[in-house]
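WP5 quarterly update. Target: ABC-type spermidine/putrescine transport system permease subunit I. Source organism: Mycoplana dimorpha. Length: 305 aa.
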Amino acid sequence: MTAAAEGSPPLALGRRRRSSLLQTEPAQGFALISPTFLYALVLLVVPILVVVAHSFWTQNYLTIDRSFTLENYRVALTEPIYRDLLMRSLWISLLVSFFTVVMAYPIAYFISFHGGQHKGLWLFLITIPFWTSYLLRVMSWRVILGYNGVLNSGLMGLGFISEPSTALLYNTSAVVITLTHAWAAFAILPIFVSLEKVDRSLIEAATDLGDGPLRRFLRITLPLSSPGVIAALLIVMIPTVGDFVTPRLVGGKDGVMIANAIQAQFSKAANWPLGAALSVTTMVIVTAMAAAAVLIIRSAARLAR
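Structure tokens (predicted):
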């Protein structure tokens, strides 16, 4: 009895400590995010690890040789066809990101600063085109850019052309135009949220100190909204590199991107290790580009201040 009585206080103290640790904010926060973390781990990290593992193997007809090799990466980085496709994809992604943000920023600025009580309505109207299928919107741009004679009929009726033409189709420009429209709303929303957080009193103070509209924008509004610009760039840049539907439908031979080559390796060519190496190479390069873009924008924002 004496030993039990002497041992019970430390045991009770240990239980109280464990209970207090479980009630702390970090523990409660971890318990809250742990299901989401496990979900992301299973559905995101594990497939990426499988792809990385495949990139170091080789395929002999229908069998996978699991012997370690870097041959797939040599082919992905040195073969002209894959190197050119990767460079073209990165260039298209940069163009789409730039044009999308340049077009999205004025719209987000207008809604944030001049939308008044109708901000929700403006945002609602922006999302209307996205009620339809992505594939349907791509096919619509294929029609607009001249396929099947819709644009050509109008131009022929006005006397500008004498016969149908597909000059606006099957090239890099068609891919850039279609992707810019497809991702416009995804750029407008984060920029709008960032602009909503800009303290209006800072702009009023700059006005009182004699700054003009352009100077106020460059020194206050644009630097403070840079997080939204960065988010928009990342949201647009990363998915567009991996798009293979749009290049296939409106790009033609001149608009083919690296994702089309990867898709071919997993279907027609049936060389999964090479397709995995192309995927990993693209992911690494895009990650490096995104990090460089973030650093450049943040440095520019600090200099502007």
